[in-house]
């Protein structure tokens, strides 16, 4: 992936296995312009984000409170796909409309199903992705919240092939 390089392994994770590689973004524009995209929020049933895929990367999940890397009980890293969407959403004058969507759990299944329905084998830069929070499942433990349920739609990127009539061929 452009702008992303692996960093050295960080030592042993839980269960004695080596930690997953952590990626650090070396995108000069991200460094210059700071911050990056805002997170898409799915707080209320019906919340939806729709946009064009501008970038995607695999990242290890982190604990919401401590920001520590998360691992499964067997020591393997808990991964997520972070997709940046160019949306029409604007919250203030500094908002460029970019939204990060952290795809894991039930959302992963919803997005994968949408990609399959579109006849594709994966998500592509320039594709159009929509995700909607549709329900909260009944919790399996009364001390916990129920898992959020999502539906998704996906349209692959449009590929234009020059036909030679427009003089757009390089020779």
Model description:
There is one protein chain. It is built from two helices and eight strands, in the order ββαββββαββ. The protein has helices at 28-33, 105-117, and strands at residues 4-6, 23-25, 38-39, 48-60, 79-86, 98-103, 128-136, 148-155. The protein is globular and about 65 Å long. It has 171 residues and is mostly beta strands. The strands form two sheets. It has a six-stranded mixed β-sheet with strand order 3-6-5-4-7-8. Mean pLDDT is 81; it is low at 1-24.
Note the main attributes of this structure.
mainly beta, six-stranded mixed sheet, two-stranded antiparallel sheet, 8 strands, 11% helix, disordered N terminus
| Strand fraction | 25-35%
| Order of neighbouring strands in the sheet with most strands | 3-6-5-4-7-8
For the largest beta-sheet, the strand count, sense and barrel status come to: 6 strands, mixed
| Whole-angstrom Rg | 19 Å
Quote the distance from N terminus to C terminus. 30 Å
Separate helix tally: 2
How would the global form be characterised? Answer: globular
Counting DSSP E segments of at least 2 residues, the number of strands comes to 8
Run of helices and strands? EEHEEEEHEE
Global structural class: mainly beta
Average pLDDT figure: 81
Q: Uncertain segments of ≥5 residues (pLDDT<50)?
A: 1-24
Helix amount:
10-25%
Q: What topology does this entry show?
A:
Layout: E1 4-6, E2 23-25, H1 28-33, E3 38-39, E4 48-60, E5 79-86, E6 98-103, H2 105-117, E7 128-136, E8 148-155
Parallel strand pairs: 3-6
Antiparallel strand pairs: 1-2, 4-5, 4-7, 5-6, 7-8
């Amino acid at each position: 992936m452009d702008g992303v390089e692996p960093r050295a392994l960080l030592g042993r994770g839980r269960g004695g296995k080596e930690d997953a590689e952590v990626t650090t973004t070396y995108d000069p524009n991200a460094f210059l312009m700071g911050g990056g995209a805002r997170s898409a929020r799915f707080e209320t049933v019906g919340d939806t984000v729709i946009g064009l895929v501008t970038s995607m990367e695999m990242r290890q999940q982190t604990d919401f409170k401590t920001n520590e890397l998360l691992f499964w009980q067997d020591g393997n890293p808990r991964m997520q796909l972070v997709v940046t969407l160019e949306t029409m959403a604007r919250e203030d004058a500094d908002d460029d409309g970019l939204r990060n969507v952290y795809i894991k759990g039930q959302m992963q299944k919803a997005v994968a199903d949408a990609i399959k329905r579109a006849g594709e084998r994966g998500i592509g830069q320039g594709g159009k992705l929509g995700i909607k929070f549709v329900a909260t499942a009944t919790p399996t433990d009364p001390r916990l919240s129920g898992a959020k349920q999502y539906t998704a739609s996906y349209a692959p990127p449009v590929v234009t092939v020059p036909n030679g009539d427009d003089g757009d061929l390089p020779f």
